[in-house]
């Protein structure tokens, strides 16, 4: 069952989406190594700042997948990193290899690129579906696309995340740009 949630979400639901993120996000993504409690802080932060959450629940009422998107996301991510700098460093140090890789990638992008991407106002922060349930990703993204009708919808995806790239292509997104190991993909809101 598809449900759109803005702002209000129970603690159990926040914990469930954090659990899905931790379990299913691909290796190599820094947030995969965040603890479940820190991911709860992360999701609560964006939900309390007007982002849109679409969830898919199974017959038991448990969330099987979700997508979180919002406006001015780049600013919100910057603010989150500033507000939680120490916690992010602490969490990253628990996976030093991954933290080092992210740092090197960031450093390389500072040296090699001054390019800034012309991105859509409405961006997807994350989308996750439980591995065991088929079609959940399609259901939540279709609901988000209807919700954001008329607006361009953008997202960043690691170039190595072939499954997600194919998924976005299937849903009408196209690759618009490349920056620091990630594709910027967009779906035009013009119908
Ligand atoms: C990217 C992601 C959200 C896509 O979600 P998804 O649920 O796997 O995508 P779909 O809805 O297309 O479903 C996938 C499969 O179910 C099948 N399917 C879709 N609807 C179905 C239905 N109603 N009944 C049966 N099967 C169905 C699809 O054909 C596809 O099959 P395949 O994997 O054999 O090709 C998911 O792979 C994921 O959570 N990845 C980890 C997190 C991640 O990388 N997020 C993106 C970060 S940028």
TrEMBL record:
Is-annotated flag, keyword Transferase?
Answer: yes
Q: Which GO terms describe its molecular function?
A: transferase activity
| Record keyword Transferase present | yes
Q: Give the record's keywords alphabetically.
A: Transferase
The protein's name = GNAT family N-acetyltransferase
Cite the source lineage.
Bacteria, Pseudomonadati, Pseudomonadota, Gammaproteobacteria, Thiotrichales
């Amino acid at each position: 069952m598809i449900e759109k949630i803005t702002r209000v979400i129970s603690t159990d639901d926040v914990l469930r989406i954090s659990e899905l993120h931790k379990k299913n996000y691909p290796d190599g993504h820094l947030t995969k190594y965040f603890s479940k409690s820190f991911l709860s802080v992360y999701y609560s932060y964006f939900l309390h700042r007007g982002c849109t959450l679409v969830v898919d629940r199974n017959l038991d009422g448990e969330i099987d997948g979700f997508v979180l998107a919002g406006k001015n996301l780049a600013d919100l991510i910057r603010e989150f990193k500033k507000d939680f700098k120490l916690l992010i460093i602490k969490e990253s140090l628990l996976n030093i290899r991954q933290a080092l890789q992210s740092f090197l990638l960031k450093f390389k992008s500072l040296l090699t690129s001054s390019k800034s991407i012309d991105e859509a106002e409405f961006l997807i922060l994350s989308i996750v579906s439980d591995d065991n349930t088929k079609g959940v990703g399609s259901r939540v993204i279709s609901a988000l696309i209807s919700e954001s009708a008329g607006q361009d919808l953008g997202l960043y995806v690691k170039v190595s995340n072939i499954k997600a790239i194919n998924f976005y292509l299937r849903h009408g997104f196209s690759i618009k740009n490349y920056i620091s190991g990630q594709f910027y993909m967009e779906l035009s809101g013009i119908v």
